[in-house]
Amino acid sequence: MSDAIREEIDDGLRFQNSNCFCGLRASVKISDKRNENRYRLFQCCPKDACRFFQWCIPLKMPTSYAEEFQQLQEELCVLREELRLMHDKVHPIVETKKMVKIMFIGWCLLCTALALLLTVTMV
Questions:
Q1: I need a labelling partner for 44 at 20 to 30 A (CA). Which of 20, 51, 62, 91 fits?
Q2: What global pTM score does this model have?
Q3: Does pLDDT of 99 surpass 90?
């Protein structure tokens, strides 16, 4: 295998193997929970017997990944701020819509009550 190919292969992320409390080699899994840890790697007991758990932390992050990671973190901060600003604009509109809906229902109930009252008084 040429050195160029070997360097390309060696540029990947590496994690340290761990043993669970049972003494077995821990399994590596991907979190699928819908929160900030989604798609994050973790290690756990392969038999689910000892409740061993730890997040996988890269031993050494390649420079190219570190630069991309930093850029993605900055973009994430910008996107979070944009999302906050959009929420601040949309929230009052949603609240106004709720109030209009409540007022409309109130008017409908009032009109229904008046119609019933008129019907009763005319009979």
A1: 62
A2: 0.41
A3: yes
Q: Which residues contact 28 (CB under 8 A, 6 or more apart)?
A: 15, 41, 42, 43, 56
Instruction: For 31-74, list the strands marked E by DSSP.
Output: 41-44, 53-55
What span, in angstroms and rounded, lies between the C-alpha atoms of 9 and 12? Answer: 6
Tens digits of residue pLDDT in 32-65: 888 888 888 999 999 999 999 999 888 776 666 7
CA distances 119 to 4, 84, 111, Å, are: 92, 52, 12
Report in angstroms the alpha-carbon separations of 95 from 11, 83, 91. Answer: 51, 18, 6
C-alpha 95/C-alpha 91 separation (Å) is 6
SS3 55: strand
**CA atoms of 16 and 55, how far apart (whole Å):** 11
User: Containing H/E element for 30?
Assistant: strand 27-30
SS3 33: coil
Amino acid at position 60, single letter: K
CA separation for the pair 20, 26 (Å, rounded):
5
Average pLDDT over every residue of 65-75: 82
